[in-house]
Specification:
The protein has eleven helices and twelve strands. With about 325 residues, it is α/β, with parallel strands linked by helices. It folds into two domains: about 130 residues, Rossmann fold (3-Layer(aba) Sandwich); about 190 residues, 3-Layer(aba) Sandwich (Rossmann fold), CATH 3.40.50. It is globular. About 40% of the residues are buried. Bound molecules: 1,4-dihydronicotinamide adenine dinucleotide.
């Protein structure tokens, strides 16, 4: 089966090539993202493979269908980029990688937290300039702090386990709490009111879009540390900027950003900033942003490549893996 693999990055290509070869797939790697102007690169392929910010809107799905593409393998967990109604209407078979390494993402959320709580991002720069002053570097202990975990699926639960290891009090929220979980599940209002640190691990849905907004921020503790490794649009960014200005938010750790699709995964180091909101975020010393790299470990890349190749081979063999199906 010939597969056009969009948005291929050099760091993942060896893993994808190896897994594809083992399952007799014919990958055609392209670096371009999937968008209306690049759909034609899928000509001659029965399947495409897309990454997290690729465009799978209704118009793109129509164009892919016209080229005879039938199968889509997402090499990510979230599928909010897919226009599901159109995908079903056009009879696409779409699969994702539901779990590759929840620990990779949970550990990255903790990396953001530890950096912000001990200001190591600032210390790193100072020491490189032989500035050993400690002024402005006072941090806080995580031990005995209350952490609110919003969304307790695979990643949220991994985050809870790490937090407990640090001696933190864990409060969890999930509309469908997992059975037999040792964590204390409470209402969202209690999370907002009691948590010193809030980590978001829910998917982006109509219910979670701008879940953190001006009103919910008002219900949070002054100086709350907010972490988002889920999807950018779970936070209303202008509301977060206002809360940073008023010191309601004490620190903000982001691996995702609402408008990331024009920015992340590209080297824009020579360009002027075009996104004023993003540029404003970068001015705060207590904001730490990484460019959607929470998944980026060797273990996760291996698992993503393996499951993606298995999903494609299963489509080819007419035996889709139901647990991974999106449509
Ligand atoms: P999962 O499906 O195992 O867990 C999601 C949990 O969120 C479920 O328990 C679900 O009941 C809960 N949930 C659903 N609606 C909710 C709501 N309104 N409020 C609170 N919780 C709600 O997914 P997993 O693997 O834990 O991933 C979570 C999210 O993390 C993904 O949807 C994706 O957006 C993001 N992600 C980010 C990555 C990164 O590199 N930054 C990598 C992988 C995933």
């Amino acid at each position: 089966m010939r597969v056009t693999v969009y948005s291929t990055k050099s760091f993942e290509r060896p893993f994808l090539a190896e897994a594809a070869a083992r399952l007799n797939l014919e990958p055609v790697f392209v670096e371009f993202p999937l968008e209306p102007s690049t759909v034609s690169l899928a000509r001659g392929s029965e399947a495409i493979c897309a990454f997290v910010n690729d465009d799978l809107s209704a118009p793109v799905l129509h164009l892919l269908a016209e080229l005879g593409v039938r199968n889509i393998a997402l090499r990510c967990a979230g599928f909010n980029s897919v226009h599901l109604e159109t995908a079903r209407e056009l009879n696409f078979s779409i699969a994702r990688v539901p779990a590759y390494s929840p620990e990779a993402v949970a550990e990255h959320a903790f990396a953001l937290l530890l950096t912000l709580s001990r200001k190591t991002h600032r210390a790193y720069n100072r020491v490189r300039e032989m500035n050993f002053s400690l002024n402005g570097l006072v941090g806080f202990n995580l031990h005995r702090r209350t952490v609110g975990v919003v969304g307790c699926g695979k990643i949220g639960l991994a985050f809870c386990r790490i937090a407990a290891g640090f001696g933190m009090k864990v409060l969890a929220y999930d509309p469908f709490p997992p059975k037999d979980s040792p964590w204390e599940f409470v209402s969202l209002e209690r999370i907002w009111a009691e948590a010193d640190i809030i980590s978001l691990h829910c998917p982006l849905t109509p219910d979670t879009h701008h879940l953190v907004n001006q009103a919910t921020l008002e219900g949070m503790k002054p100086g709350v540390v907010l972490l988002n490794t889920s999807r950018g649009a779970v936070i209303d960014t202008p509301a977060a900027i206002e809360a940073l200005q008023s010191h309601k938010i004490g620190a903000l750790g982001l691996d995702v950003y609402e408008e990331e699709s024009g920015l992340f995964f590209r080297d824009l180091s020579g360009s002027l900033p075009t996104d004023e909101t993003f540029a404003r975020l970068l001015t705060f010393p207590n904001v730490l942003i990484t460019g959607h790299q929470a998944f980026l470990t060797t273990e996760a890349l291996e698992a993503i490549a393996e499951t993606t190749a298995q999903n494609l081979a299963a489509f080819r063999d007419g035996n889709p893996i139901e647990a991974n199906r999106v449509a």
